[in-house]
């Protein structure tokens, strides 16, 4: 058995026969074209580009229908690139001036572009553009030389796709017969990862070289929860994963019934469950899964697929779309831009490359330094506030002064709108995320400044334990069950209770049923999680009592290590839910 470790980008586990895709591309030869045939060669190139652009627009349409506009727009971006006159002109100029075949001219032009991107030092954004350009090259080559696209069909037997990399187009086209995929390269914020999640296909990327070690039809396991690809699994491992699959399914099917049940504990305490979203189209999904509203709208995703910062109108349209889905009375917590660090670091012009981006000018720090960026968004949020139960929330706040500065920006924007006669809700609730240890420690002071708190455990864990949330080498340190994290959460909940400030948890911890009793026992009455987790959370909440949960929390707070806390919580979950996958 051979266990490879990569980055988990889409949850779930799958066991099945491997299909190894050759995505290394084809060798393109340079061929000289007779002077009299150059125009025909250019015609051949134009025809291939037009057909590829047509494919991209068709893909945009079908993805917009099946997954939503944001996903479709990835391919609108491709279509626009195909239609880009500069790119076309560069290739055509090369065909003409060098009298070479279209395939070679295209390939050289794209390679030069990719090289320029590599040298630009623009990090993540460059990497995404690079993947898109290579995708474009493949699409056009497909038409030029009749390359067999990696087409699989829905009726094929179930299989697991293994590839060096998958382009966004290839991921979008994966049929339902694909149980999961694993790739040698790729990153957690790539379009491929985002599409895998949207299509709910378990996926692991960045595994390093493995293709040479697998043959087609070998049984492999993809564990999208832990980021593993298991080649040549032994019998006990296979049996364990088969049982995980069954447990997941057994849990998923009856869970639908919980969707419509209220999340009330056995002793009658009502818990509010909200959904986390990245795209407006997910707001409907929150309600569909039984959430009462949106507890965290990560607005920085408006920057995904964009070559320029979104305008006020674009912000406003996105917020209106969310409110249209939720209706006027459900809460929608709009978090202001959390750009920087791992989030589209190079998209806004104001973000620069930093040595230590997670400790740098990210998130609200960036907004406070860039009035225009911040005010554009705040204007749109205030304008949208008249259409529903909008609440505004500031991320990554680490000092009281920062929070006050945010409030004063908001006041300036209010005054501007008042002067312009644009309506907004004067008493828009204001909240702060608690995701930096300093904010947790000062929660008593923070509570005087805001209407609500939302604990962002994803960042709180990494900053408390000084363990990068994206670095597998320190993954064993990065643990929400660490006693230091529990103490900070308790500090925040207690401080909030003393000033009657409502408090929510919106990091991944809140979607993990292992932690539900602990969080309720610590005093939380509101959780915001990824929509697909809501039915499962409801089920657990309905099986616990606050009295029991408080006992679990009290005991957890006496423990010294994350391992002991995890054991306690898993034992507790198994006791209340014997079929839980823990
Ligand atoms: C968090 O840090 O827990 C959080 C919800 O914010 P994000 O994951 O977007 O950083
Ligand atoms: Mg965060």
Q: Can you walk me through this structure?
A:
There is one protein chain. With 582 residues, the protein is α/β, with parallel strands linked by helices. The protein is 47% helix and 13% strand. The protein is built from 21 helices and 16 strands. Strands 1-8-7-3-4-5-6-2 form an eight-stranded mixed beta sheet. An eight-stranded parallel beta sheet has the order 15-14-13-12-11-10-9-16. α1 runs antiparallel to α2 (69-82), α3 packs across α4 and α8 (235-258) packs across α19 (534-543). The longest helix is centred in the N-terminal third of the chain and has 29 residues, at 38-66. Residues 395, 435, 456, 458-459 line the site of magnesium ion.
In short:
The chain is 47% helix and 13% strand.
What labels describe this entry?
alpha/beta, binds phosphoenolpyruvate, 16 strands, 13% strand, globular, binds magnesium ion, 582 residues, eight-stranded mixed β-sheet
Class from secondary-structure proportions: alpha/beta
Work out the radius of gyration.
25 Å
Question: How many helices?
Answer: 21
Distance between the termini: 23 Å
Give the low-pLDDT segments. none
User: Could you say which small molecules are bound to this protein?
Assistant: phosphoenolpyruvate, magnesium ion
What's the helix and strand layout?
Blueprint (H helix, E strand, L loop, with lengths): L1 E4 L1 E4 L2 E8 L17 H29 L2 H14 L2 H14 L3 H18 L3 H23 L13 E5 L4 H6 L4 E6 L7 H8 L4 E3 L13 E5 L4 E4 L3 H24 L13 E6 L4 H7 L5 E5 L13 H15 L4 E5 L27 H7 L1 H14 L4 E6 L5 H21 L9 E5 L2 H5 L1 H4 L5 E4 L1 H9 L17 H16 L3 E4 L10 H6 L4 E4 L4 H10 L2 H11 L5 H15 L6
Bound molecules: phosphoenolpyruvate (PEP) and magnesium ion.
